[in-house]
Amino acid sequence: MATTTLTELKPKDFKGKVDPDWCPGCGDFGLLNAVQKALAELGRRPHEVLCVSGIGCSSNFPGFINTYGMHTLHGRALAVATGAKFANHELTVIATGGDGDGYGIGGNHFAHTARRNVDLTYLVMNNQIYGLTTGQVSPSSSLGMKTKSTPFGNLERPVNPITSSIMNGATYVARGFSGHGKQLVTLIREAILHKGFSLVDVFSPCVTFNHDNTYDFFRGRIKKLEDEGHDPTDWKSACEKAMEWDDTIYTGLFFKNEEVPTLHELEPVLDEGGPIAHRKPGLTKEQGARILKRMM
Amino acid sequence: MSNGYDFAFAIGGAAGQGIATPGNILARIFVRRGLHLHAYNAYQSIIRGGHILLTVRVSDEEVLTHGDGLDLLLCLNQDTMTRHARHLGDGGHVIFNSDDVSPAEVASGVELCGLPVKELTNDNRNKLVQNTVGLGAMLNLMGADFAVLEETLKLQFGRKGQEVVEENVSMARAGFDYAKEHFHPFKKRLPQGKKPLAVWTGNDALAMGAAAAGVKFYAAYPMSPSSGILHWMAKNARELGIMVRQIEDEIGVANVVIGAAHTGARAMCGTSGGGFALMTEALGAAAMMEIPVVFVTVQRAGPSTGVPTKTEQGDLWQVLGASQGDFERIVVAPKNALDAFDTIPELFNLVDLYQCPGIVLSDLLISEGTFSVDPDEVDMQPSIERGALILDGNASDGYERYKDTSTGISPRAVPGLEGYVHVVATDEHDEDGVLISDEFTNPHKRRKMVEKRARKLASFFDKVEAPKIEGPDDADVTLVGWGSTHGVLAEARDLLEGRGVTANQLSIKWIKPFHSDAVTRALSKAKKIIVVENNHSGQFYRYLRSETGITAQGHIRKYDGEPFQPHHVVNGVLDHLGEKKDVERDVFVPYQEILV
User: Fold this and answer.
1) How many CB atoms lie within 10 A of CB B446?
2) What is the rounded distance in angstroms from the CA atom of residue B39 to the CA atom of residue A216?
3) Chain B closest-CA separation from residue A282 CA (Å)
């Protein structure tokens, strides 16, 4: 990989080509700022990072940050990010998306990427509603929530991304709030450093369509796990804390397991070193001859 | 076809009775002897039970199809005897275990060769013992030396230890000797070919083509009849440095492959029609992001999950229309296994050049068929041309991923390179990758990008071979087919000549972009055009019309799940020529047609 003289990077060095077109006050801004800060603090160079997104307001993220980016399909960010990481494990791969994108249409990939312990960071801008399609219920919308598609109230219980990702085998599971920037930067930084699949579910209030889960809603309820002496290696406690909702909602690092190897560490093809994307394509004469001989 | 040796045998039984192993042993014997073969396995989607008929045709010259008849039948159960013994004609032999299977009524001149397996094997209780005894008898009737069989059994069972080898050799010997004493061998002895050949399936060929093409990443979800590609890849991946992953579903597969391809690895995925249906959204994404990816889809009989273990050419329109919107793709239908092998590197060079998705349209007949191949014809080091791909170096400023060039091809840099940071997007974007909806929806930019992408394939027809008429120019009939029907058309032409009808053929391999001009020219002299395809609605018949304005005068279609045999085409052509009453009916009922 090409290198240049390293100079200290600032968050603004990660500012993308265009300014975000999110609604003023959108929770997604908080996450964007936090990622830019975290990357600067980590000393990552823009070209070393690949941000992959799906579809939705949140998924415009790669356009607003100065790193390599892929704006893919609804729900497919994790699958594409997984492929990119497999083929070039030297890249820092960050997948971004929304709650509908990740926990609804992308739910299957969410479960399996966690299970595989692919070394990537998944940042979900969770606003508990479909924003870009103008305000329908999402998989994380609260029970009873009235939206355009649930005028009589949501009948379906919300997904719990924290417990479900722990159960699926994720090895770093955290929740942030876009109104709490400092904590969010720490969580994201640690998530990127973590070897394995890391989820940071981020409450990112939708100021236009979600009038229930507002900044004030969260500010009145949020307690930080780090203030409670929570042990992130204790998954039972993590799940219990993640089930809290009404009066207390926890943010911070719920669960961390550093014992599980990442998938690319287990992959025998990578034993000889170097990403497969950098290897010379094609077979040697000897390889070709061996294969042909086995067919005879 | 061959003027010399042309011999077909079948092994029938239930799934789980061990049909593949004797089939593989025989295939190995023939190719090591330098003989050509083509095997077709008619089977059900069932793990144990049901009915299987493995047909193998052997010749001292290239074998294009599994043929029209049987010379020898090995019955592993009563069912096979009941179903297929009557399909053999004068001179045919039926081998069976006389302890368990009663002979059926057969045509005159057919020799019923019962083997007292219990007695021959000292009451060996191994369920598979009858196969080995039968194998010995078959080889004797065909006129091979026992040493040949012994050597192959050693190769086949060597890994299982000396005891297993010895047991198998002695069982085979018992069958061989019994046949020698009690049955009449075939008049033509198994010949010796020119040089040893190799054996592969079409799926092996597709996987090997990918390895040779430099594929470094292969992903799939298991689906018949494409799983053989995954199996070959998984088995050989470590040695060849290919990363192989089984992903949760085909939606994931296609997207994982896009991610891998974007970083610069040649990446491929394989599936069948139902899985491809799930991949279609990603196909469009690859086109929009201009990421070269190869999708292999192996057709089986549909719609929906259809008939999982039966063949059809029913997915043409699916691949042509897959994914929303209006965009370019390359679609290719290989003619046979060797062609499938050669096609993969060629297609990868094209998709790298044009930065667009490519689709290989195989079918069960090619992919699961077993074929002989001359190893000297298999080029394991084809040329690898990656087009305008930037894999290293430092960029100047102002790199634009989707730069609007005169060819429409924009240099492609991979993530990780300094100075080339950019975004690729499935939303419409500008030359620099910025979503046009992020600024304002700009009709001028949209139009420019559509035209840029469309322009890329303008040079396609200079890069790939146009289809050509095979056979006499002034033939009575021109047979048009695509993909796997190539071989059966060639054989049918020979047979038609024997009936006094001259026929030539036009086999189409590159489906999209379509060689409209070349095909129109080639068909301009045709007296009577008949499109032959393995589906009901005539997908290619109509595609030909839409691309050339040519309406074929006739069509021959088959949609029962089994592939064409030469006589189906011959009878169809004679029918079309209005000479049906002159058709000499075959002495046997075509056995594949009443199968399972």
Assistant:
1) 14
2) 71
3) 4
Q: Residue B530 and residue B521: Cα distance in Å, rounded?
A: 16
Task: Say if residues A142 and A157 touch (Cβ distance below 8 Å).
Answer: no
Locate tokens 């006739």: which residue?
A: B554
How large is the ipTM? 0.97
Q: Do A87 and B237 touch (CB under 8 A)?
A: no
Contacts of A85 in chain B (CB under 8 A): 259
Condensed to tens digits (0 to 9), the pLDDT of residues B189-231 reads: 999 999 999 999 999 999 999 999 999 999 999 999 999 999 9
Distance from C-alpha of A105 to C-alpha of B109, rounded to nearest angstrom: 65
pLDDT of residue B2: 46
Nearest in space to B562 (alpha carbons), one of B307, B333, B324, B242: B307
**CA angle, B195 then B196 then B198, to 5°:** 135
Specify the pLDDT at position B394: 74
pLDDT 10s digits, B308-364: 999 999 999 999 999 999 999 999 999 999 999 999 999 999 999 999 999 999 999
State pLDDT tens for residues B472-497: 999 999 999 999 999 999 999 999 99
Helices and strands (DSSP H and E) totals, chain A: 10, 8
CA geometry: angle B132, B137, B141, nearest 5 deg:
145
**Main-chain phi, psi angles of B478, to 5 degrees:** -110, 120
Helix (H, G, I), strand (E, B) or coil at B510: strand
Give the CA-trace dihedral at A116, A122, A128, A130, to 10 degrees. -100
Contacts of A89 in chain B (CB under 8 A): none
A87·B216 Cβ contact <8 A: yes
Enumerate residue ranges in chain A where pLDDT < 70: 1-6
Return the axis-axis angle of helices B486-498 and B566-576, rounded to nearest 10°. Answer: 60
Please tell me the predicted confidence (pLDDT) of residue B440: 66
Residue B586 has pLDDT above 70, yes or no: no
Secondary structure of A40-103 in HEC code, one letter for each residue: HHHCCCHHHEEEEECCCCHHHHHHHECCEEEECCCCCHHHHHHHHHHHCCCCEEEEEEEHHHHH
Q: What is the pLDDT of residue B398?
A: 85
User: B529 and B519 in contact (C-beta within 8 Å)?
Assistant: no
The Cα A172–Cα A187 span in angstroms is: 10
DSSP B528-558: SEEEEESSSS-HHHHHHHHHH----SEEEE-
CB pairs under 8 A between A and B: 230
**Residues B300 and B318 sit within 8 Å (Cβ to Cβ):** no
User: Containing H/E element for B407?
Assistant: none
Q: Tell me the chain B residues in contact with residue A291 when contact means C-beta distances shorter than 8 Å.
A: 208, 211, 236, 240, 380
Q: What is the number of residues in chain A?
A: 296
Angle CA A201–A112–A90, to nearest 5:
80
Spatial distance between the Cα atoms of B286 and A194, rounded to a whole number of angstroms: 30
Q: Which residues contact B163 (CB under 8 A, 6 or more apart)?
A: none
Contact predicate B204/B371, CB 8 Å: no
- The pLDDT assigned to B400 comes to 96
- Could you tell me the two tokens for B408? 């429409």
**Predicted local distance difference test score (pLDDT) of residue B263:** 98
Shortest CB distance from B240 goes to which of A62, A112, A283?
A283
Do you find a cis peptide bond into B225, omega within 30 degrees of 0?
A: yes
Amino acid code (one letter) for B552: A
Residues of A in contact with B435 (CB under 8 A): 60, 63, 71
Please give the average per-residue pLDDT across B429-442, as a whole number: 83
> How far apart are alpha carbons B88 and B10 in whole angstroms?
11
Determine which of B33, B151, B159, B243 to mutate to test the interface with A (most A C-beta atoms within 10 Å): B243
For residues B291 and B398, which has the higher predicted lDDT (pLDDT)?
Answer: B291
